[in-house]
């Protein structure tokens, strides 16, 4: 049926009716895909229970059973849409340890024992026969003290008391065992947490050690680089000092009135050069081979003449600026005394010292 009230109306209409000479018995159908869950933590709700067991199939209803005060009893009921999902949940949880919370206590799952608590056992459903008549010969009563019925009844009461005592003793032993197990589990969990913290501490110490080693290597590398840079600078300075000392010694070894050989920067070399034009490197050896009277010859090996561009710059700047070689005044681009070469009246003469 689609709704419970429709099922109740159909049951009231058809139950105990005669159909083809037989009495019809109508009862509510039990849920064949329901399971019972035990050992549920008090921190598990209906929603968490449904979410956890939806792993095995689609669920119609999941509920945690509580007492009259609303306190969880540790049991729950789950109803699946099909029986296959219910059996799979029972088998998986029986073979493994299914945990719902952080506390490592597995739950227990078993098929739900179906009971009819709605209709009970009405009189019309009793089987008729001699046994029924024999049991109904006497009405309900209290047994008379000292009678045979009383003695038999007391024996049953003694048995029930012994059973309760045994169950209570077993319950106390089970609770004692459970308390010991909980204490042991608590100790194991504490030891496990300590081991995890120790491992984490060792891991972090190893990381710190590696970082310190990398930092130490980086500092050493930088120190080596700085040392190499200082050594290179010192070597360059020594080379410059050696070169300067060599040039100084060569200058000191020359006579005081030393004049270079004839032909220094004569017409073959300088006649075709424009004032301020740079000198080609191929012209340096031939031009430095000899010079006119009064001009200083090259100092010899180890001397590096300055570039002509710098010479022209020095000649065209300063308090004694010269526009053309050997003559003051404005530049002259035509023939005459301002032109470089043999036509210059100052050609071959010694430059005045300033």
Notes on the structure:
The chain has 354 residues and is α+β, with helices and mostly antiparallel strands. It has eight helices and six strands. The longest helix is centred in the middle third of the chain and has 106 residues, at 148-253. The protein is elongated. The termini are far apart.
Strands of the widest sheet, in order across it, are 4-5-3-6
Structural class: alpha+beta
Residue stretches low in confidence (pLDDT < 50, at least 5 long) are: 262-273, 280-339
What is the terminal-to-terminal distance?
129 Å
Q: Write down the Rg.
A: 60 Å
Instruction: Quickly count the helices.
Output: 8
Principal-axis shape: elongated
Q: Can you summarize the main beta sheet?
A: 4 strands, antiparallel
SSE run: HEEEHEEHEHHHHH
- Helix percent reads 40-55%
Tell me what portion of residues adopts beta-strand conformation. Answer: 5-15%
* Number of β-strand runs: 6
Nearest-integer average pLDDT: 77
What are the key terms here?
alpha+beta, 8 helices, 354 residues, 6 strands, four-stranded antiparallel sheet, two-stranded antiparallel sheet, elongated
Give a topology summary:
Blueprint: H1 4-14, E1 18-19, E2 22-23, E3 34-38, H2 46-53, E4 59-66, E5 72-80, H3 83-95, E6 108-111, H4 130-135, H5 148-253, H6 267-270, H7 284-287, H8 308-315
Offer a concise description of the structure:
45% of the residues lie in helices and 8% in strands. It has 354 residues and is an alpha+beta fold. The protein has a four-stranded antiparallel beta sheet with strand order 4-5-3-6, covered by helices on one side. A two-stranded antiparallel ribbon has the order 1-2.
């Amino acid at each position: 049926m689609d709704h419970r009230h429709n099922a109740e109306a159909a049951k009231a209409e058809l139950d105990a009716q005669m159909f083809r000479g037989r009495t019809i018995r109508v009862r509510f159908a039990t849920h064949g895909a329901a399971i019972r869950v035990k050992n549920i933590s008090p921190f598990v709700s209906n929603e968490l229970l449904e979410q956890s067991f939806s792993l095995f199939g689609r669920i119609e209803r999941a509920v945690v059973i509580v007492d009259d005060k609303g306190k969880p009893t540790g049991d729950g009921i789950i109803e699946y849409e099909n029986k296959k999902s219910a059996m799979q949940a029972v088998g998986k949880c029986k073979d493994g340890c299914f945990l719902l919370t952080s506390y490592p206590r597995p739950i227990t799952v078993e098929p739900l024992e179906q009971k009819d608590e709605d209709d009970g056992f009405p009189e019309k459903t009793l089987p008729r026969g001699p046994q029924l008549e024999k049991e109904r010969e006497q009405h309900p009563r209290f047994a008379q003290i000292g009678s045979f019925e009383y003695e038999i009844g007391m024996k049953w009461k003694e048995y029930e008391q012994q059973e309760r005592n045994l169950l209570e003793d077993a319950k106390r032993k089970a609770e004692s065992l459970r308390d010991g197990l909980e204490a042991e589990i608590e100790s194991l969990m504490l030891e496990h947490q300590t081991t995890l913290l120790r491992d984490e501490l060792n891991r972090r110490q190893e990381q710190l050690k590696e970082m310190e080693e990398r930092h130490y290597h980086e500092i050493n590398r930088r120190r080596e680089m700085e040392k190499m840079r200082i050594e290179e600078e010192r070597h360059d300075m020594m080379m410059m000092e050696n070169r300067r000392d060599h040039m100084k010694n060569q200058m000191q070894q020359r006579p005081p009135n030393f004049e270079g050989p004839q032909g220094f920067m004569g017409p073959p070399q300088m006649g075709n050069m424009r004032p301020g034009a740079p000198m080609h490197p191929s012209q340096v050896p031939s031009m430095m081979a000899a010079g006119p009277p009064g001009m200083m010859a090259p100092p010899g090996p180890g001397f590096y003449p300055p570039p002509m561009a710098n010479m022209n710059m020095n000649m065209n700047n300063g308090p004694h600026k010269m526009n053309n070689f050997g003559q003051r005044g404005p530049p002259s681009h035509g023939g005459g005394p301002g032109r470089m070469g043999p036509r210059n009246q100052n050609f071959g003469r010694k430059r005045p010292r300033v």
